[in-house]
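Incident log, support desk, overnight shift.

02:14 A customer reports that sequence design results differ from what the structure should imply. Their input is reproduced verbatim below. On-call engineer (initials T.W.) acknowledged and began investigating.
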């Protein structure tokens, strides 16, 4: 019966993709390429005409620097009034909102009550508390009906009807509370996520929830936290990947810090098992300099091979083959670029968030990465769109010479204030500067000089002060506003910009593109929708 349902859902998904361009999961697909393959409305020719279509204010209260997670979008949802396109947005304070895309109005709100004892306060910027994993939307066996899968702050899995937010199944335990999971991914009726920063005293592990059996399985690499922003990507064989944070790399003793691990669920036992792993040859040095793997990889097919790309705070890109992951020694990539940025070896610079990849009409496979800070002066691109001091998006072409694959630099974008992960649609690269202040250390004043004061941020709902850590307090006060850009995917040339239209900033969020609309959420609880004027 399970196989029949899977086949029906797969057939439905195939028919859906042919007629719409939805965004059902963070990163656009299980492979986390951030490529909206089916976009037809926006184009290189008309994107210059994009306008702000609507801005919806939510009542979500920020926690530390966190507020709104990336938007999910599903069209042609069956409702009492006919098919409707619905955007699903999650707020860190355990809130989920459904927005009518046509009207720019909230349809319903779901708030999850914390069920694991007393509600704890956040523990700083890294452990804010609240819901931190972007949900995922899955189609059902009935066309027009969809289910939202969400992990609330207390570790419970919720399954909600997209139409009205009602439970379609009782909540069930997924993981310990307050563990800071990252974006959920759905593959073959199994939900995956990973955790980081040891929030709530919980270990950093990969979680899998088998929907038919309700069984939870975990795998612990025994390294640092796994904090790729869009969660774990999944390849065509169901292998799940995660980059581990600062820690020892000692595979002989089953310790996989400062590396990437590949795990797969055993179809019989439903247990996660290590399939492969890769660590750069300088992993030990990266550990010492706090240059851990904080980036979600992207997986794609090229020349009959399934390839994988990722980066880290060090600011170089690794290209691997998923079948021969790092070779026999687990340390040999297909290609490794020179440093793209971070000449100063700064642990707060480099690449943060996630990668992107797309293929153009000529069959060229592109790889994109955001980065923070100045471009490395010794790394050159054929096309450079001005000096880069705060961050940018860089583009590469995947090339093959004989049996060797490599990443060839193509272009680097204009300067962006803390460049965030891009998304791609119909040859357009959408990127943005978050406007966030990312400092983690400050020069203290000399003896006898008073420390500067930073006011606590205000609750955007009622104006009351929000309790935050000292680091968040300083960074919130110094943050500005986000700017969204549309770039030519072939050259990186700026085609359009939101200018000053977005009045707030965001932290650890992202973009979504679906059916001619681009979405971004901000710290003050607003959700912006840009598109062509109606």
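02:41 Re-run completed on a clean worker. Output:
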């Amino acid at each position: 019966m399970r196989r029949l349902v899977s086949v029906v859902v797969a057939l439905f998904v195939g028919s859906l993709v042919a007629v719409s361009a939805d965004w059902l999961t963070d990163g656009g697909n299980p492979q986390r390429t951030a490529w909206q393959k089916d976009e037809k409305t926006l184009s290189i020719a008309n994107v210059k005409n994009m306008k702000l279509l609507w801005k919806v204010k939510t009542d979500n209260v920020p926690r530390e620097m966190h507020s709104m997670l990336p938007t999910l979008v599903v069209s042609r949802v069956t409702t009492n009034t006919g098919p409707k396109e619905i955007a699903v947005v999650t707020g860190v304070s355990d809130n989920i909102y459904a927005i009518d895309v046509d009207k720019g109005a909230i349809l319903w709100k779901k708030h999850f009550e914390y069920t694991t004892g007393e509600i704890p306060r956040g523990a700083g910027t890294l452990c804010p508390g609240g819901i931190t994993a972007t949900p995922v939307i899955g189609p059902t066996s009935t066309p027009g009906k969809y289910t939202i899968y969400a992990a609330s702050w207390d570790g419970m899995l919720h399954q909600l009807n997209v139409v009205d937010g009602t439970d379609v199944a009782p909540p069930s335990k997924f993981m310990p509370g307050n563990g800071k999971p990252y974006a959920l991914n759905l593959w073959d009726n199994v939900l995956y996520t990973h955790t980081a920063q040891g929030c709530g005293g919980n270990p950093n592990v990969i979680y899998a929830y088998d929907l038919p059996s309700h069984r939870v399985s975990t795998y612990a690499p025994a390294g640092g936290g796994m904090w790729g922003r869009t969660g774990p990507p999944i390849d065509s064989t169901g292998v799940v990947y995660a980059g581990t944070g600062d820690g020892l790399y000692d595979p002989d003793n089953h310790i996989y810090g400062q590396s990437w691990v590949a795990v797969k669920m055993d179809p019989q036992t439903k247990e996660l098992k290590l399939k492969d792993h890769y660590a750069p040859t300088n992993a030990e040095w990266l550990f010492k300099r706090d240059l851990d793997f904080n980036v979600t990889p992207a997986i794609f097919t090229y020349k009959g091979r399934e390839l994988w790309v990722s980066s880290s705070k060090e600011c170089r890109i690794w290209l691997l083959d998923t079948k021969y992951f790092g070779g026999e020694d687990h340390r040999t990539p297909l290609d490794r670029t020179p440093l793209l940025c971070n000449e100063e070896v700064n642990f707060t610079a480099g690449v943060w968030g996630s990668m992107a990849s797309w293929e153009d009409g000529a069959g060229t496979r592109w790889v994109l990465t955001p980065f923070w800070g100045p471009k490395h002066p010794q790394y050159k691109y054929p096309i450079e769109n001005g000096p880069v001091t705060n961050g940018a998006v860089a583009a590469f072409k995947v090339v093959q010479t004989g049996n060797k694959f490599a990443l060839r630099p193509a272009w680097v974008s204009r300067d962006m204030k803390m460049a965030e992960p891009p998304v791609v649609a119909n040859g357009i690269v959408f990127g943005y500067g978050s406007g966030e202040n990312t400092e983690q250390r400050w020069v203290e004043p000399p003896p006898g000089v008073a420390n500067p004061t930073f006011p606590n941020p205000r609750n955007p709902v009622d104006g009351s002060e929000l309790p935050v850590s000292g680091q968040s307090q300083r960074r919130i006060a110094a943050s500005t506003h986000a700017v969204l850009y549309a770039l030519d995917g072939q050259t990186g040339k700026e085609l359009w910009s939101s200018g000053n239209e977005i009045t707030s900033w965001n932290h650890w969020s992202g973009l979504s593109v679906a059916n001619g609309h681009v979405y971004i959420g901000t710290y003050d609880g607003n959700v912006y929708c840009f598109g062509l004027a109606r």
